[in-house]
Amino acid sequence: MVIVVYRGTLKCWSVSMYASTFDQHFQRRFSLWSMKKDPDLESALSRNRRWMVNNQIKHIILRCPDQVASVNFLQKKFKSLDQKGKALNWLKKYPCCFEVYRENDDYFCQLTKRMKFLVEEEESVKDSLEPVFVERLAKLLMMSKNQRLNVSKINELKRSFGFPDDYLLRIVPKYTDMFRVVNYTGRRSSMEIELTSWSSDFAISAIEISAKRNGCEPSFSCSLPATWVKMWERFHEFNSIPYTSPYAGLSGLVEGSVEMDKRVVALVHELLSLTLWKKLSIAKLGHFRREFCFPEKLNVLLLRHPGIFYVSNKYQIYTVLLREGYSGSQLIGKDPLVLVKEKFGELMQEGRHEYNRRHYLMNLEKKRKKSVIAVGSMNKRRDDSKISSEQNDQEGDLGGIFDAEERRQFYQVLFDDEAK
């Protein structure tokens, strides 16, 4: 609460201005509120950011006619990718991924042959992982309140879970014993995928699988330094509460209770475990608040558990990572699809190295030309100085008039003759 004391002579607008300034300052402080920076996890986010941008460019090009996109078209799409600058400059940084050429005074872009091979390999891996995608989709529906989810909302996270772009046509109609598409309102935006049969084999969380493998009770793991004593005490206190499976019903749970918070933490943990990179945008998670019964301030709940989750505000986007999913900056237990996508990252790095090397040589050539010009200028000045010196020497041979002593004697004789 803010108490403002002012004299009767003060105008009301000054108080409102102060309150407005305070609100803006408070909101700014709250928006920047996040955990203590973890350099390794921040590095992982930075590396994934470049990959995500190029991956989206790849999908845009693949959807274009003949898989060729104009650079002007990609420039317009750059805004939706939260990218600044020129698309042409970005594409040229990755020559191993994107082939840029000019035609009729316009620039066009297509995937390189090596990139096309990776696209084919990725599609082959997706075909082999179809049973895994079925399980992931079933798990998402089983964790939801009514065992159904909006198609538009799933589309926001489909690439995080590795789903193919055409999962709605490739997977859902093929497994009618598990899924069906429904629309209870008639609106196009209300189309949902509903679970038609419950599978007890799928209703086991990653925490429960780990506990069964280790022969212990289901519990969370904490990835914090031993020096964080107070955080460890809070974690042990929270972990002492019996684990609630995210696949269990909500009966008997009261909103805002510790048991409900435990279930939400377990649910977010399971969602992150199902993703390829063990991370999700908190804003996109918030879109499922009704379906997964998330609290209104989900980020506040996640920040209370720094040993389980890491919350970052990198690129001004709140992202939550599963700490146990990383060792330093490296992902643990990589999905087969991630391994293929890492080849894409390696191709990006190779192209970036080639780009940097080329620019290094260009700058070196520029410096060499500048140094040649500078040396030529110095030699010219040296030659001009030598010529001037030689001219002075020649003028000195014309007589002794330029000698100081002889000049004095000359003027003395001259003036003496005039005096006579």
Tell me what the structure shows.
With 420 residues, the protein is mainly alpha-helical. It is built from 16 helices and eleven strands. It has a three-stranded antiparallel beta sheet. A hairpin with a 6-residue loop joins strand 8 (309-312) and strand 9. It is globular.
* CA-CA gap between termini: 112 Å
Query: Uncertain regions: pLDDT < 50 for 5+ in a row?
Result: 1-33, 394-402
Q: Into which percent range does the helicity of residues fall?
A: 40-55%
Query: Largest sheet, described in full?
Result: 3 strands, antiparallel
Total DSSP E strands: 11
Shape: globular
Total DSSP helices: 16
- Would you tell me the structural class of the helices and strands? mainly alpha
Estimated radius of gyration: 36 Å
Q: Kindly estimate the percentage of residues that lie in beta strands according to DSSP.
A: 5-15%
Q: Enumerate the strands of the largest sheet in spatial order, edge to edge or round the barrel.
A: 1-3-2
Indicate the mean pLDDT: 79
Topology pattern, helix = H, strand = E: HHEHHEEHHEHHEEHHHEHHHEEEEHH
